[in-house]
Fold these 2 entries.
Entry 1:
Amino acid sequence: MSTLIELRDLKKYFPVNNGLLHAVDGINLKIEQGKTLGIVGESGCGKSTLGRTVLGLHESTSGEVYFDSENIVNCSKSQFKKARREMQMIFQDPYSSLNPRMRVEELIAEPILINGIYKNKNEVFDRVANLMDTVGLAQRLSDAYPHELDGGRRQRIGVARALSLNPRFIVCDEPVSALDVSIQAQILNLLMDLQDELGLTYMFITHDLSVVRHISTDIAVMYLGKCVEICPSKELFKNPLHPYTKALLSAIPVAKAEMRHKKIEVIRGEVSSPVNPKLGCRFAPRCPLATTECTIDDIPLVEITPGHSVACLKV
Ligand SMILES: Nc1ncnc2c1ncn2[C@@H]1O[C@H](COP(=O)(O)OP(=O)(O)OP(=O)(O)O)[C@@H](O)[C@H]1O
Ligand SMILES: [Mg+2]
């Protein structure tokens, strides 16, 4: 299996009034070709900023992004453009990411036309028809406007647009969070079928652990810009090691009656500020296991068992 995406000490800081907001603060990870890495964590922990920085939609503060073994942070404009075509994004809210004045076929054709893929207009519209089939949109909808469609169909347009340039890697940023539960499963199944058919590699961002469990090969847990734990998805649910991951998992609702008495570990206190953060574990102020040593220096991710890394001195 080959690595398609590799991040080395990737950082994105935003200048704000009172200093630097460390939205993404030294992320190291790899995604194998054809696999899905889930990114989970509370609102504001830097998931979207990470996805956008990987794609170059935010300029990184420092660090490296390798796509197919090539560092695309410091490469030539033409190399970046070529790589970027193969790296696309699916957004959370398909309604606000689609121009309301464009019809379905125009929306799907737009990236193809901008990139000048085909010379002939008929070829463009053949490709659009083909993409509509691929994502399960009936051809009769090609003249419809986004407001005439339900959320699931709108998201299918988002998926078709992302696929239009034959990408190999897609950042899916909360692609089902805005959808009705009944439609979420349809879109997740579509994404998984497309992955099988086209060999796609996904970074799948969500705050919903039950969704990420369904779709991910591996999962990275983020807390205030840092990755605190990363391992195969099954392992994370079976054997979470970081106190933050344990608390996140214990908060998932369970359907089984015998599990209902299970104690939910409530995370105490507030998330600290990401502006000019102090050294040490960012979770320490809320962690039941924290001691002074946790606040002295940043805690690196350490591989505890093969493929399972955690950033915690108490593990
Ligand atoms: N353009 C920006 N300028 C300044 N700060 C920003 C900018 N974009 C994001 N941030 C800040 O960076 C941090 C991470 O934000 P981000 O949107 O990446 O979080 P998230 O994990 O995607 O949250 P959510 O689950 O709510 O989508 C937050 O503190 C946010 O306020
Ligand atoms: Mg987000």
Note: The two ends are 30 Å apart (CA to CA).
Entry 2:
Amino acid sequence: MEYVVGARIHQLRTIDPGEIRLVQLVLPEEIEIAGKRYAIRDTMRPGTAFLAKPWGDRTGKYRRRMYTRSNASFNEPRVLETFINYTHRDQSDTSGWWQSEMATDWFEKGKTVEVRLQLDEERDVALVYENTKVCTPANLRLEDDGIWEGMRMVCVAFGTGITPFLSYARYLKSHNFGRKGARVGVHMTLVASVRQEGQLMLHEELVALEQQFPEHFRYQPVLTRSWPTAWAYLKGRILRVAHSMDGKDQIDISPFQTIVPDIAQSHFRVCGSVTACRQLTLGLEQEGLIPLTLRTESW
Ligand SMILES: Cc1cc2nc3c(=O)[nH]c(=O)nc-3n(C[C@H](O)[C@H](O)[C@H](O)COP(=O)(O)OP(=O)(O)OC[C@H]3O[C@@H](n4cnc5c(N)ncnc54)[C@H](O)[C@@H]3O)c2cc1C
């Protein structure tokens, strides 16, 4: 049996018109199921995704879709924030709808989108469903408390692949980056690659975070297609692909290495499109670089 609850579209902010929107869904405090009331508890771990049922433009029906959360349940329980981009053009269904006037209309009318819950009958609570309960190389669920505090993480985001890392950054900040007594705490480098300046997500917040906590957080936004004259960060793709006749692409990651020279001493995390993630990890392999750990998630 799958349980869902209507979550109000609390924010629908356009980041890049027709391309990327910030979405916030707010869940009620409780839900009634079969005459019994359950408190809705939000314990989602940073890096995990929730399941919602938005409208599909192409198919004309509600669809089940996963979205990685960009805020943290710790600071904002029952407020599910994510960034949704318009993907795969002719095949797209819900991702186009999220950018549409119809979605704007739903937001303005305070309409709801269903979000999946998981009943915990023993504790009489309904938990916000999260896509994974364990850390694996193919997901980005943040390591347990007690582990991440000692890590040096390099996180690479392509487009809306930044969502899990925004959640990490907010969670780490709210836990003082794991500093306690003699323990120095975590270090996180975030490389966020987008096509142009207008696609940067929470740029000012991330710049401010780096200024406030330089010993724990480093932010390297990258613009691949166009950039303002005064752009102080990397311009162009972080990797170069040379296609060969035998189908074995050669990936040159030297642009990436100019901003992250110490990959082998890092816990490496990558999120974004299947192609971009595969190219980057293949580039590492071809360069003979083996990070301490490697975890990627692509969609
Ligand atoms: C764990 C997880 C987390 C996610 N988090 C986010 C997020 O934070 N933000 C976000 O915008 N999206 C995220 N997604 C993707 C999201 O769930 C949708 O799949 C996406 O928005 C496209 O939805 P759609 O309904 O338009 O297209 P879909 O109906 O999902 O896809 C349409 C068709 O496009 C093709 N297709 C699907 N995926 C690909 C692909 N990667 N490459 C090429 N063709 C493809 C398939 O043929 C498919 O039938 C996540 C997915 C997963 C699994």
Note: Residues 3-128 form a domain with the Elongation Factor Tu (Ef-tu); domain 3 fold (CATH 2.40.30.10).
